[in-house]
Design a protein that fits this description.
The complex is a heterodimer. In chain A, 68% of the residues lie in helices and 8% in strands. Chain A is mainly alpha-helical. The chains are: A mainly alpha, B mainly alpha.
């Protein structure tokens, strides 16, 4: 049992216990934390997907149709399903943290966290419904 | 003393995170499942083209693509630091993360600017 003793640079008397790279696997809360941070990978994926879609639409009808066909293939659908779950996790954790990241004050009193989160969830629902209505309702009636 | 670049980067992280939280799930549901898999009649190609060419929508799309990329860059950077303990690669990780976000944002801007 000989873990190499390492000291902090310029502070030779400070000794820090080495921590394993897998420290976050030791507790449920740590795993949830890392998973929450990793939702950002899927956020970036959707940004890239949107960029690809915009480029395909601007290129030609054929390019757009080809991309749509590729998106319908089972492996891609599987990946997007994981992405969708990650995005929902991101939204829920983001709205739950919102009152703590940015406390809202009204007449000198702090608005209860539940109301701030609740307002965010309501706005999320409204925006999602509006987008769905826009694309499913009006656009398809030609 | 040089000023820390953290506050503006955190602001981009926060703006991108908020935008993604509100709009990304429904966007992915529609454009990743509903339309490609034919669960509902998709908008016609002409409608999509008109939409993408519309100036305010081009601005919207730029923010929609770019801000969440900076959200990813910031969050992923610190996940690598803390999760994989890459503090000693500080500069490299930061350049790779923010650099990717910048490059893709430039691609998005150029795509949306020369729409014609």
């Amino acid at each position: 049992m000989s873990t190499p003793v390492r000291y902090t640079l310029h502070h030779p008397r400070w000794y820090r216990r080495p921590v394993s790279v897998f420290w976050w696997l030791k507790k449920r809360a740590y795993i949830v934390f890392v998973l929450r941070e990793l939702t950002s990978v899927f956020v970036a994926l959707v940004s890239v997907l949107t960029l690809l879609q915009v480029r395909a639409i601007l290129e030609s009808p054929e390019a757009h149709a080809a991309l749509m066909a590729r998106l319908a293939s089972p492996p891609v659908t599987g990946l997007l399903l994981v992405a969708l779950a990650a995005l929902v996790f991101h939204s829920v954790s983001w709205f739950n943290l919102a009152p703590r990241a940015m406390p809202v004050r009204l007449r000198g009193r702090r608005v209860p966290d539940v109301l701030v989160s609740g307002g965010n969830f309501a706005a999320w629902l409204f925006l999602s419904a509006a987008m769905a209505f826009l694309f499913l309702g009006t656009m398809t009636t030609r | 003393m040089t000023r820390s670049p953290t506050p503006p980067l955190w602001l981009l992280f926060s703006a991108g995170g908020t935008l993604a939280a509100f709009l990304f799930p429904i966007h992915l549901l529609l454009f990743g499942f509903v339309f490609p898999l034919g669960w509902a009649e998709p908008p016609s190609y002409e409608q999509l083209l008109a939409l993408v060419r519309h100036p305010p929508i081009r601005l919207y799309l730029f923010g929609f693509i770019s801000l969440p990329l900076f959200h990813w860059a910031h969050r992923f950077r610190y996940t690598l630091y803390d999760g994989l303990k890459l503090k000693h690669l500080n500069m490299l990780v930061a350049v790779l993360c923010y650099g990717t976000a910048v490059v893709l944002s430039v691609v998005a801007a150029r795509t949306l600017l020369d729409v014609g």
